[in-house]
Amino acid sequence: MINVDDRHRLHQFLMVELAIRYLEKDVEIIETTKCINLFIPFIEALLEQLRTQYNREKQYFIQKQVGLIRWKRLDTYFSEVSVTTPGEDAVFTYANQAVKMHVEELIMQTYQSLRKK
Fold first, then answer.
1. Which residues does 53 contact at the CB level (< 8 Å), separation at least 6?
2. N or C: more exposed end of the chain, with fewer CB within 10 A?
3. 3-state percent breakdown (helix, strand, coil) of the chain, nearest 5
4. Can you count the helices (H) and strands (E) in the chain?
5. Using an 8 Å Cβ cutoff, are 54 and 20 in contact?
6. How far apart are alpha carbons 68 and 72 in whole angstroms?
7. Strands, E, within the chain: which ranges?
8. Residues 5-32, mean pLDDT to the nearest whole number
9. pLDDT per residue as tens digits for the range 46-96
């Protein structure tokens, strides 16, 4: 079973993982444009920051014996995340639009923290 604090942390971990996926896909698209020298350093800095956070959270969940089984898209509006825990498996349902907004906010927050440095 996942306690409330770990559930929030798991949610944040999933959003970081999706942000990394989105940015990696953006890199593939940007590499085909003429503006590659402008955008790639910026996106690489974001990815570096997010990967550091991702690895830190991943180690935390490994110690807690919590693992992601799968992320399954149910339909246009909802996705389901299956997670294994020491006690029992848990299934969480997410609204796709809300996930998209959370990932965009996370990327913007990461960008703001990079600008302050």
1. 16
2. C
3. 65, 15, 20
4. 3, 3
5. yes
6. 11
7. 67-73, 78-84, 90-95
8. 92
9. 999 999 999 999 999 999 999 888 999 999 999 999 999 888 889 999 999
- Count Cβ atoms within 10 A of the Cβ of residue 109 and give its class: 0-12 exposed, 13-18 middle, 19 or more buried: exposed
Q: Provide, rounded to the nearest whole percent, the portion of the chain with pLDDT above 90.
A: 68
In whole angstroms, give the CA distance from residue 19 to residue 13. 10
Contact (CB, 8 A) for 103 and 20: no
Model confidence at 36, pLDDT cuts 50, 70, 90, reads confident
Query: Angle at Cα 39 formed by Cα 111 and Cα 112, nearest 5°?
Result: 10
Entry pTM? 0.89
pLDDT for 1 beyond 80: no
Name residue, tokens 């940007």: 30
